[in-house]
Amino acid sequence: MSIAYYLAKRIHFSKGDDSQRVSPPAIRIAISGVAIGVAVMLITVAIVVGFKEEVCQKVIDFSGHLQMQAFVSNNTYELPPVCVSDTMLSFVERVAEVEQVERFVTKPAVIKTDNDFLSVVVKGVEEDGLRGLRGSKGLRGSEWSERDVALSKTIADKLKLKVGDQATFYFVQTDKDADPFALGAENTKVKVRKLNVRDIYETHFSEIDQQMVIGSMSLLQQVSGWDDDMYSAVSLTLKDFDQMDDACWLINRLNLVDRQGVQVYVQTVEELNPTVFAWLALLDTNVWVILILIAVVAAFTMISGLLIIILERTQMIGILKAQGMDNRTLRKVFLWVALFLTGKGMLWGNLIGLVFCFVQWKWHVIGLDPANYYLEWVPIHLPLSMFILINVGTIIITLLVLIGPSALVARIAPTKAIQSE
User: Fold this and answer.
1) Whole-prediction pTM value?
2) Beta strands of 113-241 (E only): which ranges?
């Protein structure tokens, strides 16, 4: 055991007359500053990571990581058909670890009821492609017919529809053999289908809930006059989100062409939803700003506490210097004292932060407005790597910022320090 560590323990754990000393209140403030800083950092990271993961998962559940479609110059819900065969998918799976494949067809439509109408987009999916609607309770585990659809709660409320009701859907179909530059009703056909409201879902994504209806893919293929192997797009869910960009680049390098000669183009979920992911990326910047500010505040409380301890121990420093102790060893003494204080503050901070995270994760005490945040409560997820990084970073930053204030012991003259009271 070094002399510096031994003296630091004596200083830190000494039980003198606290009423005659200045340091106890300062020490409590320093410990509280570190505890609050660590707790806030843990809670902030847990909330942001949890929020990003939940929102990302909602988007991925609905769109997948990658989307294969015909190459078009503009974004539209009525995409030209693309034929993605099993052979083409086998080529894709050679360069990407695909976990799930979902084929779908999208087509604009108008829903007409006795009292109202609404323009929507119908997304026709395979029977096992209804996994994305986590706000629904009845989509899974039961057989669906071609005449069944699921409405979002927003659409159902606007049209005053409920489960079991029927609604009339009008699909506008352009004659593929007509002159594309000729205007007139003779080039279009309106196809009418009466569909049953089988279920109502809610994702809390306004872009989805305000216009998306989930229905049968085979029905939309019939309405569009497409073959069974024609789809608007095919979404791919990968085993690893981090491989998404590399997989997209590799698949596009294959220059896939379907049986109609249509160039197949692959986009990532971030390219399909740029607004959402740009907003999530902005959260990272905000978190770093918060963490830096909290670290600065905690560091200043520790600096003030250490300076008070050094000034209060001036006489002791003078005696130790007079007995031959060098400034370097004395600085180590007070850095050990600072480490003890930081450790105690971190212990309380971890306890407070982890208890808060557990309570929120278990019971969802703090709620959110889904209209603004897409979620009904504050999500919590604290990766072990981030937990370790925050604690190790706190120790390193605290010790680094205290190296300067600890140099104050070198300025204390032994003769004057021993005479001081």
Assistant:
1) 0.87
2) 117-125, 148-152, 166-174, 188-201, 212-216, 230-231, 233-238
